[in-house]
DNA sequence: GTCTATAGACAGATAGAC
DNA sequence: GTCTATCTGTCTATAGAC
C-alpha cells in the first residue's frame, strides 16, 4: 500500500519546524504556520490549543526521533564516530530539521527546548566516550560535530569540511 | 581622566545586543531595547530611524571590532591557533556579544548579518590556514572553535572543553 | 535630545457557524 | 475537523510637545 498522506497535525508540525529553520522564530507565527500547512488559524488551534502546545508537540516528536538516532548510532556499521560526524552535516532529514527548530526555540529562552537538546547531547557524548575510552577525544569530536552543524545551519557551507575532518582524525590513530 | 559614560546611542546598541543574546530576537523589540537602555521608544527612534537602522549600526560596530580582532590574532604572542580557540569560548566581551547578536539576526534570514559574519569567518580561516600551511587542519580547528562558540551560546557549557581540545591537538604535533 | 500620544498592522487566542 | 469573525494586546513607526 502507498505511503499515507501525513495527518493535518503532522503537516502543522512540519510547517512550524520549516518556518523556524528557514525564516527564524519571528516568522514562525500561528498565522504563517497555518498558512504554510494549508489550513486556517482556527484549524491549527483545534489541534494545538496554544503556541506552547505546538512547541511541546514538536519537542516530543523530536525526542522520539532522538531515541531512534542514538540506538542507530550505537549499532552503526561505520562505528559511532563516523555515524555522528556524518549526521552532524545537515542532510535535510526530518530529525535534522527538528533539531534546528528546537535550537531556535531554545534561543528564545525556552527551558523545555534547552533541556531536551541538552539531554540528547549528553547521550551522544556518552556513546562517543564509551566507544573511544577517551573523554578528551570524545569531547573534541563532539565539538567538531557541533561546528559542522553550526556552519550548516548558519549558511557557512564548506563542501570539503567533512573530508578535512576525516583527514585530521586519521592522523590520531585511535 | 575617568572612562566616559557611554553615549545614549551606544547604550541602545548594547541593550539591543544583550536582549538578542539573552532572550532571543522575539524579545528584542524597540520597546524592550529602549526600556533596557533607560530611554523611551521615541528617544530610541531619534537615534535610529527604524529597526533596520539599529541592525545596520550594530553590524558596523561589530565589523570594526572584527578588524581589530583579526589584527590581534595575527600578532598574538601565543600564536593564532591558541588565540582563536581561547576567544571562541564566550568571555562575555563586547565583541563576543556582538557576534552572538549578529548570529541571531542572521537566523531571521537577514543577508546583511549573514554576509558580515561570513566575511569575518573567511578572514579567521585565512589566518589559520596561512599560519599552519594545512587547510584540513585549519578547517578542523575552525570547526572546533565553532563548536566551542555554539556550545557556550546554547548553554551547553563544559568547563574542561578547551583543556580537552588542547590535549587532543597536542597529539598532532604541528 | 527626549518625551507622550496615537496610528495602523499583526500577534495569540476565543466563540460559534458549518 | 475546519472555517470566519472578533477580541485584546503588542509591534513598528509617525507627529508634535517640551
From TrEMBL, chains A, B:
DNA-binding feature ranges: 29-48
Residue ranges occupied by any HTH tetR-type domain in the UniProt entry: 6-66
InterPro entries reported for this sequence: Homeodomain-like_sf, HTH-type_TetR-like_transc_reg, HTH_TetR, TetR_CgmR_C
UniProt-listed SUPFAM superfamilies: Homeodomain-like (SSF46689)
GO molecular function: DNA-binding transcription factor activity; transcription cis-regulatory region binding
Keyword Heme: no
Record keywords, A-Z: DNA-binding, Transcription, Transcription regulation
Name by which UniProt lists this protein: TetR/AcrR family transcriptional regulator
Protein's organism: Aeromicrobium piscarium
Upper classification of the organism: Bacteria, Bacillati, Actinomycetota, Actinomycetes, Propionibacteriales
Amino acid at each position: 500500500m502507498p505511503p499515507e498522506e501525513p495527518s493535518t497535525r503532522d503537516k502543522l508540525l512540519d510547517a512550524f519546524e520549516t518556518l523556524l529553520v528557514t525564516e527564524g522564530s519571528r516568522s514562525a507565527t500561528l498565522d504563517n504556520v497555518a498558512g504554510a500547512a494549508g489550513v486556517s488559524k482556527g484549524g491549527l488551534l483545534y489541534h494545538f490549543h496554544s503556541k506552547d502546545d505546538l512547541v511541546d508537540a514538536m519537542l516530543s516528536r523530536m525526542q522520539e526521533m532522538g531515541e531512534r538516532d542514538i540506538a542507530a548510532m550505537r549499532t552503526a556499521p561505520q562505528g559511532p564516530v563516523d555515524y555522528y560526524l556524518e549526521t552532524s552535516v545537515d542532510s535535510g532529514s526530518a530529525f535534522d530539521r527538528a533539531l534546528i527548530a528546537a535550537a531556535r526555540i531554545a534561543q528564545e529562552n525556552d527551558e523545555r527546548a534547552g533541556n531536551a537538546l541538552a539531554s540528547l547531547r549528553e547521550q551522544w557524548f556518552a556513546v562517543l566516550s564509551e566507544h573511544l575510552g577517551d573523554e578528551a577525544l570524545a569531547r573534541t569530536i563532539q565539538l567538531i560535530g557541533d561546528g559542522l552543524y553550526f556552519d550548516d545551519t548558519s549558511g557557512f557551507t564548506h563542501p570539503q569540511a567533512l573530508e578535512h575532518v576525516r583527514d585530521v582524525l586519521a592522523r590520531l590513530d585511535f
